[in-house]
Amino acid sequence: MQIGIPKEISAHGKEVRVILLPREVKRIVEAKHIVLAEKGLGVRLGIEDSEYAKAGALLTSNRRKVFRQDILVKLKPPLPKEFAMLHSGILFSMLHAEQSPKYVDMLRQTGSWAIAMELIKSRAGERLIQCTDITGEQGMLMAFYLAKKSPIDCKVLVLGYGAVSSGALNVAYALGANVKILRKNEFKNIRHFLRGVDILVNGISWPKEERDRHHYLVSRPMLKLMDRHGVILDLSVDFPNIIQTCRPSLIDKPVYVVDGIRHISIFGYPVLAPISSAARYSRQVLPLLLKIAQIKRKERLPLYIKQAVVDPEQFFSVVYPAEK
User: Fold this and answer.
1) How far apart are CA 28 and CA 257, in angstroms?
2) In order of start, what are the domains of the chain with their CATH numbers?
């Protein structure tokens, strides 16, 4: 199959990563697929076009041609002007369709269908394409910087202790912060635990039904309980959120202030460590992309990939029937 890899241009150019590095491109070409890469694809990571050419990729400055390959593989969801260039192919990228149905609506207009990277999971429910530990790690480092204190002087309250919180906890403990993990049975006393907190970390993925009801664990009036230089680090990036004042931000404007409290809720924290996260994503994407390119037809995909298929017509008839 013919596979297109475009440059990432989201967040006003602040997204510098690439979804596939030359080493993985070489493996795809060796599997007898044609790879068409946009010129300058990896320049912002220090990867020259010559490295992709050496790996066997064809290079072009024609973005429309890249987007019209059988499979378009990229990290971030396409921008509206990029969706307009798709044509009856397969989009393989992060999509987060439930939170952003506008992407699926734009996809529907192209005659294409998508495989959402974030929905591909193992039998144990683990994401196969992820940098959750990097998310927590980089978010925590940024929060300490914004708190204007040495980590050892910071009082950190963590909501949730799953995979996305683990990286934040590792950094907080390693730097000597005063850390409290709030257990579920302590939620009812959250006002008590919020008093004087320097950094509030949210690692809880709030169920859709709770988000739809706008049920908050931390309401806006509770912010005044935190230290006046306080920081909220939202790692789940749900919207609506468990924290009333949280909304997603992008790397070009990652921080916003509500009632004096700085908030961080970045779609794509791993961009803060672009070299490390690009290398990991490239390794993770390779075997899945090879499987998709080999099988071609969505009805024949293995179940763990088929469950990540986003078919626009089915999506709007099941998830958002009122918008069909």
Assistant:
1) 45
2) 2-120+274-323 (3.40.50.720), 132-272 (3.40.50.720)
